[in-house]
User: Fold this.
Amino acid sequence: MRKALVFLMALALAGCGDRARLALEQGIGPAPELPPPVHTLIPTVKVAEAVGWPAGATPVAGPGLAVAPFAQGLDHPRWLAVLPNGDVLVAETNAPERPEDGKGLKGWFFRMFQKKAGGAVPSANRITLLRDADGDGAAETRSVLLAGRNAPFGLALAGGTLYVADTDAVLAFPYREGDTVIAADPRRLTGLPAGRRNHHWTKSLVASPDGRRLYVGIGSNSNVAEHGLAEEEGRAQIWEIDAASGAGRAFATGLRNPVGMDFEPATGALWTVVNERDELGSDLVPDYMTSVVDGGFYGWPFSYFGDHLDDRIAEADRRPDLVARAIVPDYALGPHTGSLGLAFARGGALGPSFASGAFVGQHGSWNRNPRSGYRVIFVPFAGGRPAGPPVEVLTGFLTAGGKAQGRPVGVAIAGDGALLVADDVGNTVWRVTRR
Assistant:
């Protein structure tokens, strides 16, 4: 009887919520449409069941592009880094144990839906090195560079040191060009917020061009501070860390879940991709990409896209002083798209249409009907700023019936200028080239 009741409740949860009233494109660009919030007793849940790719199948490449596997048979590949010699590092990783996250009936349902979406697999906890020594566009060798990590994610090489952001710390490892295994013990550079809830567990990482500073993206511990502001200490921020000493500070705040980060080539400005909050309806709130201002505040949890208040914040906790100076993000990426990966183009290896701009990996929605994301896009830039609508680079991750063959996460530019895409449901790193 209890199992039947739970099943019926699950069906009810899956079928409730609202449907988008705006086209996805209306939530994209420098001035997205932001309709009034929609509050429902049960949030919209529309999860794409993870099924993987049939043998020989690939995503669909955009016009003028081609796609092929660079490496297959990986274990939940999430994030990528390309080394100077062309070797590719991939973080095979997933969430650590976090017993306080998702407790209660609602949490049970979300864990069930996460499993359906392919996100509940154990973490391999390793960094794997992929090498294409013969230059044929596929990695013929792979080796475990680092094993036994704690939900590793961010990767950055600077000055002979490989920095790895585990879920709870930034670690420094000695690296020599050509290494396929690192046996040395790490130097713990700094601890990171983690703990028993650790809602946004991924910790992204990028090194400044001179290698002297590291920037770490740290997501919030909740959707909208529903567990109290004390649990958000040090979170929803980008930290700046001195690579030599480990001393750090909050570089920018109010960023609900800043994941992908990269430096825009023309201006040298740091940019990030941010996952915005859920449960305000299928049309809110758009994820976004933005340049990051030193000392800037971007709204979370009190407001979004500048001064649009989130009325779920308890009146006693509201901060009109912060809302008054909240920075409007540069470019919306559509509501609930799950935008995670960010890599700026460097050169015209994919053709002149993709020579200046940002590639974004959109992992896909759960809180929108119809679904959004599940693709890789390119946002063209001119003069260091977004300059037009996005162009689809990879699609076809969803079947006609709405099942997920793959889900794109991290993106990176290979040594030869090709685009690499980590697909954590397809267990593949894809390589996109000019046709």
Summary: The chain has three helices and 29 strands. The two ends are 57 Å apart (CA to CA).
